[in-house]
Amino acid sequence: xxxxxxxxxxxxxxxxxxxxxxxxxxxxxxxxxxxxxxxxxxxxxxxxxxxxxxxxxxxxxxxxxxxxxxxxxxxxxxxxxxxxxxxxxxxxxxxxxxxxxxxxxxxxxxxxxxxxxxxxxxxxxxxxxxxxxxxxxxxxxxxxxxxxxxxxxxxxxxxxxxxxxxxxxxxxxxxxxxxxxxxxxxxxxxxxxxxxxxxxxxxxxxxxxxxxxxxxxxxxxxxxxxxxxxxxxxxxxxxxxxxxxxxxxxxxxx
Amino acid sequence: xxxxxxxxxxxxxxxxxxxxxxxxxxxxxxxxxxxxxxxxxxxxxxxxxxxxxxxxxxxxxxxxxxxxxxxxxxxxxxxxxxxxxxxxxxxxxxxxxxxxxxxxxxxxxxxxxxxxxxxxxxxxxxxxxxxxxxxxxxxxxxxxxxxxxxxxxxxxxxxxxxxxxxxxxxxxxxxxxxxxxxxxxxxxxxxxxxxxxxxxxxxxxxxxxxxxxxxxxxxxxxxxxxxxxxxxxxxxxxxxxxxxxxxxxxxxxxxxxxxxxxxxxxxxxxxxxxxxxxxxxxxxxxxxxxxxxxxxxxxxxxxxxxxxxxxxxxxxxxxxxxxxxxxxxxxxxxxxxxxxxxxxxxxxxxxxxxxxxxxxxxxxxxxxxxxxxxxxxxxxxxxxxxxxxxxxxxxxxxxxxxxxxxxxxxxxxxxxxxxxxxxxxxxxxxxxxxxxxxxxxxxxxxxxxxxxxxxxxxxxxxxxxxxxxxxxxxxxxxxxxxxxxxxxxxxxxxxxxxxxxxxxxxxxxxxxxxxxxxxxxxxxxxxxxxxxxxxxxxxxxxxxxxxxxxxxxxxxxxxxxxxxxxxxxxxxxxxxxxxxxxxxxxxxxxxxxx
Lengths: 254, 594
Hints:
The complex is a heterodimer of chains A (254) and B (594).
Chain A: H1 12-16, H2 18-26, H3 28-55, H4 59-90, H5 120-144, H6 149-176, H7 181-220, H8 222-234, E1 240-241
Helix pairs in contact in A: 3-4, 4-6, 5-6, 5-7
Chain B: E1 2-7, E2 14-19, E3 22-28, H1 29-33, H2 43-53, E4 62-65, H3 69-82, H4 90-100, H5 105-113, E5 120-122, H6 125-135, E6 141-147, E7 154-163, E8 169-178, H7 183-193, H8 202-209, H9 217-223, E9 224-226, E10 232-234, H10 251-257, H11 272-303, E11 307-311, H12 318-327, E12 332-334, H13 344-356, E13 369-373, H14 376-385, E14 389-392, H15 395-407, E15 412-415, E16 418-420, E17 429-433, H16 438-449, E18 459-462, H17 466-469, H18 476-481, E19 487-488, E20 506-507, E21 510-512, H19 518-531, E22 536-540, H20 552-561, E23 566-569, E24 572-575, H21 585-593
Parallel strand pairs in B: 1-4, 4-5, 6-11, 11-12, 15-23, 18-21
Antiparallel strand pairs in B: 1-2, 2-3, 6-7, 7-8, 9-10, 13-16, 14-24, 15-17, 17-22, 18-22, 19-20, 23-24
């Protein structure tokens, strides 16, 4: 096997999680769901990068972003096709089961990035770090995919593209901001950290909210549910007359 | 008086601005944010409207939201309670969704726009649909029928509208059918069952129906029964959309129709399974049409009017619209270019202007072009920077040259003037090609649109020549104005119009009057002079999963990513540099890395 190129080596954190990833990818259903989700993330990322190509005033960046976006769209297709192949082979359909997706998807770290309002410098710094993070994670996925060579080949191919994406974003950042490009990278790192925290916080808040609402549902709602069901039984099918004057006031929200 | 209409938070958000009774701008958020079906609060659309009108937010006299959020909350909560305890998973999601933002529209609008809360008004969802359908139609008095999946409680309503000679306007809704009994939800349930996206891909079901036979009509009729008072009701045992957001159909539905389609598998119409799906589509289409025709016949008898205005997402069903024209008794049917929820932005604003404030009625321009205009010089600049071949041509030379390109079998990305409002590309943001061969259709599907082979492409034809090529009944030209009807292609022309003739021999034709899009009309004439057939294939200027392009730069990026041969914006014509991308730095860097 070829030695991994420097940018394809996983970070220590990703290496630590290798057993977890091995467990996740060992099951076909989970693999299908992961691949479908990756397909969506890559396509969404591609759209953001395409938008960056449309809004930048730098002709070289426009061409590079466009090339990058086309790669991302192609990755999305690769993931979707592979998921479809696995689905076809499994014959059982996919059982979604545990998804671990209560966190908002991080994707390329672009989910909260308003591409239209970002400078080229910020965009390049974001992209560079996102691609780097994706390459690290994808190299772990490639390594744990010994039992599924076609999926492994997809990660291999995508890793090749990610290396290009990492290279050009760094080179271009240094070109458009020769003096302060490192500062931009640090700002982007902090921003990614902040967004990760926000995703974690909103994820936890959403889970807690769901738990509280579910408790309320079973504790407070039964009598109201009984009343609603009784009212529903009395409701007639068919036309309901619209009373004259019902819509006269536009001030009401109800 | 400046009135802003807003439609948001379900799918396809939009904003529309009415100034002194006439629309100044109407645009869907997705066209600006570039996220297909963007349902978020339409800030970009609102900014565009204000910019196009040249006014500040303070100059707004009213902001109208297209539905009543608390009434919607009431429906969601009531349905959740009725489904207790099965709705336990849905309840937290629904509450977080509604109470997080959607229920507080007055405050949200007021804070986003900085307008006083008293200026924020609300119409009912189907009231907005009715207003869009009637107030934008060139008719003085008409019956109104609205049908969609669901608004607050109503899913279907009938009524009438009248413009008085003294400038007063009245819209009266007689009665409605309420959730969960919904024609839109019935159709959407089949959309989900057939593996398509709900609220987005319903037109694929209509396209697929052409390949099937309505052999399952009896089964579909088990799902929907007519009530003694002439309305309809769904048998809820077959559905789950009213109890959960996760699935629209129940196990009983699957027992009746068989296993649902895997959305990731293509439909192979040569297999029994593929044919079953097509038959399902044909059957639900037939039941939808029968139901609509029957309801419209009753409305016609009741009102005695000759004109019918159709609103709501169901009005996008061109096959059903043509049956309504043929069988309902109405002589003319008006479908606005944006009958769905996005169009409600304009309807809500017009309703507020004409009825709430009682401003005098005014005739409105009868076209769909209410969005931002394209800038040909922007295209020229960016294409020049990338080294593509650019020509800035005078009007006549451009038309002649593009007609030549089309006649030579080239695919043209065509951008001119203001963006269309609504889901159809009606000649200002279109991909145009010759309509003569299936080879061209397959090329478009394979190389540009990347879409299912069963979906048909639409033609555009000048009004003067329409009846020569298409069998358009009296009143049909109106339906075809905004591509709202599907009509038979005349048999003698089918061999020359293969790319736009659907498998059932029909086409969703756009009949173009010169006044609506003069430039495209001139192009059709020029093309007709060259080829003898003034018909072009007209499909929306976008790639799969993307919104229709708005600005020149979006058309340009679409042009570069696909195999469109020529791009036109204003007077600028661009052709691709051969192997343009190979010479970029990206190409060189990729080679190095490899």
